Amino acid sequence: MQYVEANGARIPVVGLGTWELRGRTCARAVEQALRLGYRHIDTAEMYGNEREVGDGLRASGIRRDDVFITTKVWPSHFAPRELERAAKESVARLRVSSVDLLLLHWPSEQVPLSETMPALCKMKQIGLTRHIGISNFTVTLVEEAVRLASEPLVTNQIECHPYLDQSKVIAACARHGISITAYSPLARGRVGNDKLLKRIGEAHGKAAGQIALRWLIQRNIIAIPRTSKVERLGENLALFDFELTASEMEEISALAHPRGRMVDWGGSPQWD
């Protein structure tokens, strides 16, 4: 496993995303992923599966200290007292003493960041999380969050894959030493049928999805693909025995287009 260093955090560059994984399926996926060599599991209050993620962690037999666990607080709990309660409940559902990374899941239109950021920093200060960060934050919101935070932010988790140009927010985060964590790194399965990615994959003896993931981690971007299939779990981790050329990286980057975003809803900010 390779790691990304960001403002004091050491984050495994590949993790298992668990959005939409439920019940026994979720617990089994986490258990199998950890046994295969994953050391980073991503969940959230909103996913409704923190308990099962914790079950999978314990069933795997892997030491808690060897696994990087990320969870997220939903915007309806961004008021200071609500945030602390939500964080404590997440830790309790996971049945751990603390998480490694606690994120604000989406920007809130109701609670100002001037109230939320001190509360998020407090979660680190009282030991509920080792690190803090943000998710789905635009350039403007990143700058505001950094200004208001008394503790370092270690990641901004955003939609990131070959079809979406996120260069502006990536550059903004880099200025502050904040890493990028890519959710939907396989563009919800779309990369599997991409002719360019398949052609590059054939040259390396890899699948198109592995090429898309390698394109991310070669840019020092953390990827958290979601799957419950054992064969896919292994495939998504087999990224460290080859390297894309500079020209291949450029070809993949050129796939981005204005309608490439897949996660967009009424609660989304004004994207960069």
Task: Summarize the helices and strands and which ones pair or pack.
Elements (H helix, E strand, L loop, with lengths): L2 E4 L2 E4 L3 E2 L5 H14 L3 E3 L7 H11 L7 E6 L6 H15 L4 E6 L8 H13 L3 E7 L3 H10 L4 E7 L7 H9 L3 E5 L11 H10 L3 H10 L4 E2 L6 H8 L8 H8 L19
Parallel strand pairs: 3-4, 4-5, 5-6, 6-7, 7-8, 8-9, 9-10
Antiparallel strand pairs: 1-2
Helix pairs in contact: 1-2, 1-9, 2-3, 3-4, 7-8
What report would you give on this structure?
With 272 residues, the chain is α/β, with parallel strands linked by helices. The chain has a single domain (3-189, 221-232), classed as NADP-dependent oxidoreductase domain (TIM Barrel, Alpha-Beta Barrel). 40% of the residues lie in helices and 17% in strands. The chain has 10 helices and 10 strands. The chain has helices spanning 23-36, 50-60, 80-94, 113-125, 139-148, 167-175, 195-204, 208-217, 230-237, 246-253; strands at 3-6, 9-12, 16-17, 40-42, 68-73, 99-104, 129-135, 153-159, 179-183, 222-223. The strands form 2 sheets. It has an 8-stranded parallel beta sheet, with helices on one face. The chain has a two-stranded antiparallel ribbon with strand order 1-2. Helix 1 (23-36) crosses helix 2 (50-60), helix 1 packs across helix 9 and helix 2 (50-60) runs parallel beside helix 3. The two termini are 32 Å apart. The mean pLDDT is 97.
